[in-house]
Amino acid sequence: MDKLIIQGGTRISGEIRISGSKNSGLPILAACLLADSPMDICNLPHLNDITTMLALLRCMGVGVTINEKMCVEVDPTTLTDTEAPYELVKTMRASILVLGPTLAKYGKADVSFPGGCAIGSRPVDIHLSGLEAMGAEIAVEGGYIRARAPNGLKGAHFVMDKVTVGGTENLLMAAVLAKGKTVLENAAREPEIVDLADCLVAMGAKISGIGTDRLEIEGVERLRGCTYTVMPDRIETGTYLVAAAATGGSVKLRDTRADILTAVLQKLEEAGAELEIGESTISLDMHGKRPKAVNLRTAPYPAFPTDMQSQFTAMNAVAEGTGAVTETIFENRLVQVNELNRMGANIKLEGNTALIQGVPRLKGAPVMASDLRASASLVIAGMVADGETVVDRIYHIDRGYECIEEKLQQLGVNIRRVPG
Ligand code: UD1
Question: Catalytic site residues?
């Protein structure tokens, strides 16, 4: 297994480009299943999760052609199979996103039941009850979700028990081809859902309330292929900003958006960062200062994103003062705390809150990545530690950060990958 080796102590400085969003690329690729003609999806990040989704589409018989700029032509007209097998679903929970579109278009879908994962049990009950409300018959057999709607789905009024990103995406993709009108209430409002909805509209879907918690969808007979460019990755953006803030450095990020990062930018300003927002750029400068500790609480968009929690925990670990970080979305997502403490951090866990007393510097150590965002926090910790930090199991990082070591090297960080 590959490892990352980081020599701490460098202040980040420089400019990099932000990649396309993993979390909107995945549902947009699933949405290609709904089209009657080929789709061209551009600005996809080169990441393991995207490769897994493309492999899943291929295994369903969908034509996938990748050009040199990570624009992918997806031709759903050659589909031969409506099954998402265990071998692929077990490596990526987001495979569940093919359920809604496959069922809506072909009247049947068999998707392996996604298991739990490092950050909690992550059920899909809301995805399933929403599809049932649209008339689907669903059985769970042999570890598979077997969904049937031989006469097509029909519009429904459905209130989601909990705000769920994947659930909203699956039901939205199902509703665009259902007969009649669907209303989804208590829908998630994440920017990735807006990106998916914009793509569906470009394919001919009729959706109103985009960006709100009430989506109204008027089902259409068919959707056509189109060319769509995936939005920038807000979590990658936030991660590099936090890395710069934690090291007292400065960074300029290109091809990104500030308007979808308000909660994160607000916390960075509280930490003492000077920000400059351009049309598609964000610059951050700490002027060599140590960050000030911040308190935060994760919640659905537009509040502070759970996917940025662990990076701020790492920044707080070397900040001036004490910060409290509360995780409300996933039950087991403060796992990085033990590894940070092994590096000399002073963090106490009280239920779902981490109380972090900042220390001036951490100490390099061998550490182990346990999930995607937790591993990003260990890389940040390595940058503010004396000596060498070896981050093991970095396949987690490769699921979500395109060319992380190249980008960090470009920012002056002494980091290298050692194949294992
Ligand atoms: C997506 C993101 C992930 C992010 C998360 C929250 C993708 C590929 N992943 O994950 O990076 O951390 O949103 O912003 O976009 N829940 C249920 N029943 C369900 C569905 C969800 O109880 O049927 C619960 C989950 O266990 C969790 C909460 O709802 O506690 C939010 O999960 P959800 O928004 O669905 O996360 P994902 O879509 O899996």
Answer: 117
